[in-house]
Design a protein that fits this description.
Elements: H1 13-29, H2 36-49
Helix pairs in contact: 1-2
Length: 52
């Protein structure tokens, strides 16, 4: 029986950094709106994914 292929990462570390930077930029643009909380949480989760 053949072993299943190893899963490959969809996003690279550099991708996470770029996405986190884009989220931060957007977060600053909407900081006074209620949805900013969701983007703030996303920003911090992306940082955790990067090991920061």
């Amino acid at each position: 029986m053949a072993e299943p292929a190893r899963a490959r990462a969809v996003l690279s570390t550099e991708d996470f950094k770029l996405i986190r930077e884009a989220v931060l930029h957007y977060l600053k643009a909407i900081e006074d709106q209620p949805e900013s909380i969701k983007f703030s949480n996303l920003y911090h989760r992306l940082g955790s994914a990067l090991g920061r």
